[in-house]
Design a protein that fits this description.
Blueprint lengths: L9 H5 L9 E7 L3 E7 L6 E8 L3 H15 L1 E6 L1
Parallel strand pairs: 1-4
Antiparallel strand pairs: 1-2, 2-3
């Protein structure tokens, strides 16, 4: 399954409570040179780290994040 939902609603975009209670959630921890990446399991009870992303161009960064979301079948994304 691939996440197809996109939103232009700022309320929905910023509301963590709108993330489904089941399914993987991807977490990004942005830094100046690297971005830490973690994902939880489908029950949202256990997390594991993924290889960090080295900062390059925005285009490469967005492609990397898109690929991770697709590969992990994430239902939500948390940044910070």
């Amino acid at each position: 399954m691939v996440q197809q939902k996109q939103t232009t609603n700022p309320q929905e975009f910023t509301d963590v409570l709108s993330i489904p209670r089941q399914g993987r959630v991807l977490a990004l921890d942005p830094g100046m040179k690297r971005i830490g990446v973690a994902v939880c399991d489908e029950t949202q009870s256990v997390t594991r780290t993924l290889p960090r992303i080295e900062r390059a161009s925005w285009k490469k960064l967005l492609i990397a994040v898109k690929d991770i979301v697709k590969d992990s079948d994430a239902v939500g994304l948390v940044i910070g």
